[in-house]
Write a structure and sequence with these properties.
285 residues; alpha/beta; Rossmann fold; seven-stranded parallel sheet; 10 helices; 7 strands; SDR family NAD(P)-dependent oxidoreductase; NAD(P)-bd_dom_sf
């Protein structure tokens, strides 16, 4: 398929927005796109310090990166983000910001309706609203990529040891991807979902690894498909590649980027001597 002039111009100097870009997969994505020559904006919620450090790091390398405070899923903050980016082109939207079964406590300390609402507000309403904010301009320009970061839990497989609302919200992100792909089938904007597995991030450590003693940690890690954790930079490479021309044949795909955990979700339950990695079956409900 021959590239249009819009494709060529956008690839030369794209505007990229990465949500949740101060840590983990988001920070790795910011580095990957910036070092490829893109103009990167990224959001942060509670990571002002890491966000400033990332800007400084990449600026020292000659890359133009901007950090923006953002409360995903809150209407006033979405409006503020739109004003902050007015006049800036967003060609690639990476919907990465999310909360997990442990980090959701920052938004709702106690289990119950408020926590359920936080999962759905941050993890699914936020990405939906961002698509509605930025995709129309992509369509009008004739070029755009939307990359939704879901999770192997909910997006591909079921992990009942985690909070049910967490899995529901990640499943909704996968559905959003399929729905947009159908809705945009004749439009010049490609959409994908990426479902990481056991990635060495603060979120996964908080939900799974931090409570394990060294022996159980080694047992869990070695028992994972591939025998190791995934590095954030590996997921960032997948996100970046999905914006390349050969990836267009995958438009609408929900990509299992879990190193095989999506095919063998029981691997998280095989720590010797325990019914699951927590030793507390049914905790996720």
């Amino acid at each position: 398929m021959r590239k249009t002039s819009a494709d060529t111009d956008a690839r030369t100097r794209r505007g990229v927005l990465v949500t949740g870009g101060s840590r983990g997969i988001g920070a790795a994505a910011v580095r990957r796109f910036a070092r490829a020559g893109d103009r990167v904006f990224f959001t942060y919620h509670s990571g002002a310090g890491p966000a400033a450090e990332l800007v400084t790091e990449l600026a020292a390398e000659g890359h133009e990166v901007t950090a923006l405070a953002f409360r995903q899923g809150e209407r006033d903050s979405h409006e503020e983000l739109g004003r902050a980016l007015a006049g800036s082109r967003v060609d690639v939207l990476v919907n990465n910001a999310a909360v997990g079964s442990a980090t959701v406590a920052r938004h709702a300390p106690e289990p119950g309706p408020d926590r359920d609402a936080a999962f759905l507000r941050v993890n699914c309403l936020g990405p939906l609203w961002l698509v509605r904010q930025f995709a129309p301009a992509m369509i009008a320009r004739g070029y755009g990529k939307v990359l939704n970061v879901s999770s192997v839990g909910g997006g591909v497989a079921v992990f009942p040891q985690f909070d049910v609302a967490d899995g529901m919200s990640k499943a909704a992100v996968a559905y959003l991807t399929r729905h947009l792909a159908a809705q945009w089938s004749a439009l010049p904007v490609d959409v994908f979902a990426v479902c990481p597995g056991a990635v060495d991030t603060g979120m996964f450590r908080a939900s799974t690894l931090d409570g394990l003693d060294p022996g159980r940690l080694r047992a869990l890690t070695s028992g994972l498909p591939g025998g190791r954790l995934i590095e954030p930079a590996e997921v960032a490479d997948v996100l970046w590649w999905l914006c390349e021309e050969p990836a267009r044949i995958l438009r609408g795909a929900v990509v299992d980027a879990s190193l095989g955990l999506g095919s063998d979700p029981a691997a998280l339950d095989r720590t010797p001597g325990h019914d699951d990695w927590t030793g507390q079956p049914g905790r996720g409900w």
